[in-house]
Amino acid sequence: MSASSHQPPASISPQDSLIEYPCSFPIKVMGARVDGFADAMVQIAQQFDPRFDAATLEMRPSKAGNYLSLTLTIHATSREQLDNIYRALSSHPMVKVAL
């Protein structure tokens, strides 16, 4: 029985990216519907996109009203910026999922 070798995925060069920068890029974030959730997500968005306008935030409560889905449309300038904002959102204790 031979072991298959696994190589780490090759990094994607800017030329191979499917996203053309700069662009508007929607990020969905889901978490419990609690006070401060939306404000905390807006603060993270503004850290990575100083042009982020909180007035563009879209909010949708879950059917039972226990969770809140947010859409943050940021001004994406690079893959690195997107990676960093996803890392910050995903590691926030109030966030269940960031897509």
Features:
elongated, 2 helices, four-stranded antiparallel β-sheet, 25% helix, 99 residues, 4 strands, alpha+beta, Alpha-Beta Plaits, disordered N terminus
Q: Which second-level CATH architecture applies?
A: 2-Layer Sandwich
Mean pLDDT: 89
Q: How many helices?
A: 2
**Rg on CA atoms, Å:** 16 Å
Order of helices and strands: EHEEHE
The CATH class turns out to be: Alpha Beta
What is the 3D form? elongated
Classify the oligomer: single chain
Relevant CATH superfamily: ACT domain
Placed side by side, the strands forming the largest sheet appear as 2-3-1-4
Query: Which structural class do you get from the secondary structure elements?
Result: alpha+beta
- Topology-level CATH name: Alpha-Beta Plaits
Describe the secondary-structure layout.
Elements: E1 23-32, H1 37-48, E2 58-61, E3 67-76, H2 79-91, E4 95-98
Antiparallel strand pairs: 1-3, 1-4, 2-3
Helix pairs in contact: 1-2
Structure explained in plain terms:
The chain has one domain (18-98): Alpha-Beta Plaits (2-Layer Sandwich). The protein is 25% helix and 28% strand. It is built from two helices and four strands; from the N terminus they run βαββαβ. The protein has helices at residues 37-48, 79-91; strands at 23-32, 58-61, 67-76, 95-98. It has a four-stranded antiparallel sheet, with helices on one face. α1 (37-48) runs antiparallel to α2 (79-91). 16% of the residues are buried.
